[in-house]
Specification:
This protein is an alpha+beta fold. The chain is 26% helix and 6% strand. The protein has three domains: 183 residues, Cytochrome C3, CATH 3.90.10; 88 residues, Cytochrome C3; 62 residues, no CATH class.
C-alpha cells in the first residue's frame, strides 16, 4: 500500500514539472514574458527589437581568415530554394571588428568546427523557445547587417529559386563567390568632428597618423561595429569628406581617446578650426631629423601607450655605435682616411651627436662645418 501511495505522489508532482518544459506550440499564448526576447512593448515583423542573444560561457577558437574555408554551402533548409552560398572568407576577414569568429561560432572549442544544427533545432516546433531554431539563427545572424546597408531584406538577395538544371545553377552561384576577398579599405587621412564644446568646437582626428605612425591596431577603436560603417547603399561618395557632427555622449566620444590622451588638456584637441598633422617640433620641442622622421613612434617610444618623454641623447637608443659598425656616409659625410680611424667621441664629445662636432682638440683654426673631415656625398 505504501508503494502505491509513493508512486501516486511522484506522478502528481512530476506532471506539472513536465508540462512546464513545453511552453506550447504558439509561444505568444504561453506564459512567457515578452521582455525576455524583445526590448520594445510591441514587436513587429519589420522591427522585432530582439535583445542580444544571452550567450553564456562562450567558448570559441580563432583561426586566421586566410586559413579558413572560402565558401560554405548552407543547405539544411533548401526545399524551395537552392542552398545559400555563403562567402565565408570575406565575412571572416571583417569579423575582427564585430566580435571575431565567436559572432557565429560561439560555442566551439579546439577541434572541428561544430555545425549550427548541433545546438539549434531544425524544427520550429521545439521545447526550448529561448534558443532560436536553425532558420531563425541563420537569419538573425545575417539579416541585421543586410537590412542596415541595403535597407531591404528580399529573400532572393541570398536565396535563388530552383530551376530545372539545379546543379548548373548551383555551380554558377559558387563561381560568383569563390575566391572573392574583401576589397582593401580606403582609410581616411583625417576626420573632422564638430562638437558642442564652446571653447573649441572642431576636433581633427588624424587617422593615418594613428594607423601608420603610432601603429595602433584597428580593433583598438573599431569594436562591435557593423558593416554599415562603410557599406550603405544610400551613402554618396562625397559624404566622407564632410565634417561629422558629434552625436554620441561625452563619455562615448572620449573613451577611445583617453587610453592615450587622458592627461591632455581639452584645448589640445578642441580648436576653433580643423588642424594640421602632428608636428613633433611644436608638440615636443624636438625636431626630428630625416632619419627619425620616417620611423614609427613605437620604434623609439616603445609599444606602451601613452608614450613617455625620452632623453634626447642619441646613445640612449644607439648604445652599440662604434667605428666598426656605423657607416658614416648615411649622414651625408664620408670621412677621410684619417678621421675614419677615430672613435666617435674623439669628435662628438660625450657621444652627443645632437650638437656640432668639436675639432679644436686636435686642430687649430679648424671649425665644422666650414672645414669638413671628409667630403659630402649624396644619400637616398
Amino acid at each position: 500500500m505504501k508503494k502505491i501511495i509513493v508512486i501516486i505522489f511522484l506522478l502528481t508532482i512530476s506532471l506539472p514539472l513536465s508540462a512546464q518544459k513545453n511552453p506550447g506550440k504558439d509561444h505568444a499564448k504561453s506564459n512567457v514574458n515578452c521582455k525576455t526576447c524583445h526590448v520594445c512593448d510591441v514587436p513587429t515583423k519589420d522591427d522585432p527589437c530582439l535583445v542580444p542573444c544571452p550567450r553564456e560561457k562562450m567558448k570559441t577558437v580563432y583561426e586566421s581568415p586566410d586559413k579558413t574555408v572560402d565558401v560554405v554551402s548552407l543547405d539544411e533548409l533548401s526545399k524551395k530554394y537552392l542552398p545559400v552560398t555563403f562567402s565565408h572568407r570575406v565575412h571572416a576577414q571583417m569579423s575582427v571588428l564585430s566580435g571575431g569568429c565567436g559572432t557565429c561560432h560561439h560555442y566551439n572549442t579546439s577541434g572541428p568546427i561544430q555545425p549550427c544544427k548541433n545546438c539549434h533545432q531544425t524544427s520550429r516546433k521545439r521545447d526550448d523557445i529561448s534558443k532560436p531554431d536553425l532558420e531563425a539563427a541563420y537569419h538573425r545572424q545575417c539579416i541585421t547587417c543586410h537590412r542596415e546597408w541595403s535597407h531591404g531584406t528580399s529573400c532572393n538577395s541570398c536565396h535563388n529559386l530552383k530551376t530545372t538544371n539545379k546543379e548548373y545553377q548551383k555551380e554558377e552561384v559558387k563561381k560568383k563567390v569563390k575566391g572573392k576577398v574583401h576589397p582593401a579599405l580606403i582609410e581616411p587621412a583625417k576626420i573632422v568632428f564638430e562638437t558642442k564644446y564652446e571653447k573649441g568646437k572642431m576636433v581633427t582626428f588624424f587617422h593615418d597618423d594613428h594607423t601608420k605612425k603610432f601603429k595602433i591596431d584597428c580593433t583598438s577603436c573599431h569594436k562591435n561595429e557593423t558593416c554599415l560603417k562603410c557599406h550603405d547603399v544610400n551613402k554618396t561618395s562625397n559624404e566622407k569628406s564632410k565634417i561629422i557632427r558629434a552625436q554620441k555622449s561625452l563619455d562615448e566620444h572620449h573613451k577611445k581617446c583617453f587610453s592615450c590622451h587622458k592627461e591632455d588638456k581639452c584645448e589640445s584637441c578642441h580648436l576653433g578650426k580643423p588642424s594640421e598633422h602632428f608636428d613633433h617640433k611644436k608638440r615636443t620641442g624636438w625636431v626630428l631629423n630625416k632619419f627619425h622622421d620616417e620611423l614609427s613612434c613605437a620604434k623609439c617610444h616603445g609599444s606602451k601607450i601613452p608614450y613617455s618623454k625620452l632623453d634626447t641623447k642619441c646613445v640612449n637608443c644607439h648604445k652599440g655605435w662604434n667605428i666598426e659598425n656605423f657607416k658614416h656616409t648615411i649622414t651625408g659625410l664620408q670621412l677621410d682616411e684619417t678621421h675614419a680611424q677615430l672613435n666617435c667621441e674623439d669628435c662628438h664629445e660625450e657621444k652627443n651627436f645632437a650638437v656640432k662636432p668639436v675639432c679644436s682638440n686636435c686642430h687649430e683654426n679648424f671649425i665644422y662645418p666650414k672645414q669638413k673631415p671628409g667630403k659630402m656625398v649624396r644619400t637616398k
